[in-house]
Amino acid sequence: MPSSNLPPELLLLIFGYLKDTEDIRELLSCARVNKNWHYTVTHFFIWNTARFKKIKTFFAFLDILRRIAWTRKQRAFANWAKLIAGLLEKKKIKLKKVDITSTPIQPITTTHWHSTHPYGFSVETLDLSLLEHKNGVTDRMLIDLFNQTPNLVKVDLYNCYTLTDKAIDALTMQCRHLKELRLFGCTGITERSVIFLQQKCPKLTKVDIGMCHHIHLYTLDKEWASLRHLDISFRYDFKERQIMDIVKRVPNLEYLNLFRCSLTDGLLNSLLPLLPRLRFLNIGQSTYSLSDEVAKAIAMHVPNLRQLSIQNLEITSKGILVIAQKCQNLTAIDMSRCAKITDVGIKYLVRYAKNINDINLLGCTQLTDIAFVSLGELGEKLDRVVAHFCELTDVGLISLVSKCLNLKCLNLEYCKYLTSASLGRLPEFCKSLEVLDISGSCIDDEAARKILSGLPSLNMLVMKNCEHLSDLFKDEFVGDKRLQICNNVPGMDQYRL
């Protein structure tokens, strides 16, 4: 069978092996084979998601779209000119000797994007969250971009603080299929943008307006029924009444992020009954201390929670018992810096919430080996554990990893009682481990070599401030991309599953 006749399903499967490669030129070469391959590559792999890190690449992308739009317009003018000339000739209408088709049509400059097909129509995801020099992104640029990409579904404008309501107005006018929008840190956005989003984007289900301090959501005069995901984190300026008014107008919420908001026990007791469909709740690091009363409200009103974050709250093991007994469908829980939780609380959690696969115990300084022996009872369901600063020893670690064989992410940062005896045995059990942080541990060269050679799936090994590692070892693995020994590496939250 000729390659041009291959069904689309097969082509998608074949090109899928090339999409994760760092060099995009392989896909571009495939795009030059024939029209069928060209359509498949450009629509499903290259132009479907536009994600940028370098500002120069973003500018080049804008320039390509502008050139393509200009060339298409010029060709359209030329076609109309030829059509009119043909009609005039057919009707035997004579005009002055003016050649209306002689206007030169300059094609776009020679690039890989040689066709004038409207590639912007294929873009469904725009991600500027990792873009450097975001002060170079202006309203005018995004207005031009949105005019060329009307089929956008997901837009991430994280921390693009130079943008104003003009860009959001253009987005809502052109991109009526928008479903997810992240505006976290866009401090130039005001209440007008919320009006545009509610009126013109009926399919919108996810909005992140964290740290957008000029948005107060006063203009929500009717229910926003389509909204399922709302993030208003870092909005400590919101008063209790404001938060209540917001939640009343979004009754179908399944995801609510109130991280670092001004919350009280009384507010949450009134708020949670309004959200029976809630599946994700983040009330961590509230500006007011929250107690076990919050745990009772969670257990009573939102028993179907799947993910819960209660970091840095005054909740005790009794509160964990109440939550675990009622919220038995929990799959992920973040209890970082909950200093009052003890080994007993972890026992309660494992006994009742048996579907936990992701647990964060960072800074829970009262936990000992007993807690991690209990976690081992979750078995192969558990795939992410953060035990940063916990009182974990070799006995507890071996008991955990010997039963949880599917661990993919393990943070043992500054667990000062761990030694090379247990760390060197990790390859015996954790064959699926992808990210491992053992910074501040007493690991030596031999145990580190065992980890690097015995974990085939390992993508990142962080060993900051490991004083027992020799300079010879560091020189030996200096070119290993998996290894991070310097102190300026990203935090483990970057690798949340």
TrEMBL record:
<dbReference type="GO" id="GO:0019005">
    <property type="term" value="C:SCF ubiquitin ligase complex"/>
</dbReference>
<feature type="domain" description="F-box">
    <location>
        <begin position="4"/>
        <end position="49"/>
    </location>
</feature>
<dbReference type="Pfam" id="PF12937">
    <property type="entry name" value="F-box-like"/>
</dbReference>
<dbReference type="InterPro" id="IPR057207">
    <property type="entry name" value="FBXL15_LRR"/>
</dbReference>
<dbReference type="InterPro" id="IPR001810">
    <property type="entry name" value="F-box_dom"/>
</dbReference>
<protein>
    <submittedName>
        <fullName>10694_t:CDS:1</fullName>
    </submittedName>
</protein>
<dbReference type="InterPro" id="IPR036047">
    <property type="entry name" value="F-box-like_dom_sf"/>
</dbReference>
<dbReference type="InterPro" id="IPR032675">
    <property type="entry name" value="LRR_dom_sf"/>
</dbReference>
<dbReference type="GO" id="GO:0031146">
    <property type="term" value="P:SCF-dependent proteasomal ubiquitin-dependent protein catabolic process"/>
</dbReference>
<dbReference type="Pfam" id="PF25372">
    <property type="entry name" value="DUF7885"/>
</dbReference>
<feature type="domain" description="F-box/LRR-repeat protein 15-like leucin rich repeat">
    <location>
        <begin position="315"/>
        <end position="471"/>
    </location>
</feature>
<dbReference type="InterPro" id="IPR006553">
    <property type="entry name" value="Leu-rich_rpt_Cys-con_subtyp"/>
</dbReference>
